Amino acid sequence: MISRRDLLFGAIRRWRKDDDRPVSGIGADIGAADMAFARKDYAAARELYKAVLKANRLHKEARVRLGLCHYHLEEYVQAKDTLLMAVRQHPQDYLARLYLGLSYARRRQVEKCMDVWKDFMNREHIGVMREINAHKALHECGEALDGIEMADAVEKALAQG
Description:
Blueprint (H helix, E strand, L loop, with lengths): L3 H13 L9 H13 L3 H14 L4 H13 L3 H14 L4 H13 L3 H8 L8 H15 L6 H14 L1
Helix pairs in contact: 2-3, 3-4, 4-5, 4-6, 5-6, 6-7, 6-9, 8-9
InterPro entries: TPR-like_helical_dom_sf
Pfam family, one: TPR_19
């Protein structure tokens, strides 16, 4: 994935016929981080995404993916903090909202999880939506929910596609 800045300046350089050097090292770093993430090498990806964010604090994809790395490494406090920042910057980001709720659920903070998922919507993942809506309905009826079981059920729906 390439940053917007590199994309814009690359187009300007081609127009001016300047050399094709990257404006920053962000493009290369994000590519390496994305490759590590795709290999499920979350520890390596985490460090690479941190480097990208050090160079560009507002890089949306890097922040969300860093939160996902923390989540998959079972670092739920760090995942929550990173994803909360991503949701504050980009409130409609599907993955950030989904995994922020899952991070709260894994920490057994069901109320906060439900607050995050209150306005959650993604029509492309019907199974995930169905699972989240079922848990929201149970919560609204006063049913005592276990965050771990809730997270397991949503992750199972997510794995099924």
